[in-house]
Amino acid sequence: MGLYDNISFQMCCPSCGKELKRFQSKSGSCTMTTLSPADVNEFYDFCDCGMTVKFTRPPRNLDNLTLQDIFGLGFVMATGRSNIPGVDDV
Question: Rounded CA gap, 10 and 43, in Å?
Fold first, then answer.
């Protein structure tokens, strides 16, 4: 078995109700670190009852993003003016 990353996510198995808390992914850095689901394109866990639970999404193309794309990624825009010319205060 190769390296993977652990995913910080928990849920109950949709088949038997047992808590699943050992989610893994091979779409991250695969350095045995703990990542958020937002950091990967897929993650999965295997239940003792035989059920596999896998979450997937298409890879995000982060080139040429529009302002709407940026907001869709969860960013919030802040603007402001600085008292120092040429320096932003955000």
Answer: 12
